[in-house]
Amino acid sequence: MRCEQFITVGLNPCLDINCYVKNFKIDDIARIKEKRISAGGKAFNVAKFLNQYRRIVKPVGIAGGYNGGRFKSLLEKDKIPTEYLFNISGEIRENYNFFLKMVLY
């Protein structure tokens, strides 16, 4: 049996913050009904995908600041190793996405 191992390299990680709103009007307040936060960035999305299919993956990258700590915790929650993430002095980015949550009757 062959055991495949993968390394992903990500130098631009982020916290993906998906916000779901019920109503949206231009020039009006959009109230967030639900929010989901996950570790993101192309290399880390690939690592999460490979991990779902029980492949051994070791992401290499950077993490910094308060968001970096949250980022590492989210990866660890998904059972993805973080020992090759190097701390930097700066803060990693946040990526906000807004989705209109449709209510079907």
Keywords:
2 helices, 3-stranded mixed sheet, UDP-N-acetylmuramoyl-L-alanine:D-glutamate ligase, alpha/beta, 105 residues
Describe this structure in words.
- The protein is of the alpha/beta class.
- The protein has a single domain, classed as UDP-N-acetylmuramoyl-L-alanine:D-glutamate ligase.
- The chain is built from two helices and six strands; from the N terminus they run βββαβαββ.
- The protein has helices spanning about 40-50, 65-75, and strands at about 5-10, 15-20, 30-40, 55-65, 85-90, 95-100.
- The chain has a three-stranded parallel sheet, with helices on one face. The protein has a three-stranded mixed sheet with strand order 3-2-6.
- The N and C termini lie far apart (about 50 Å).
- The mean pLDDT is about 90.
Could you give a short description of this structure?
The protein is an alpha/beta fold and 105 residues long. The chain has 2 helices and 6 strands, in the order E-E-E-H-E-H-E-E.
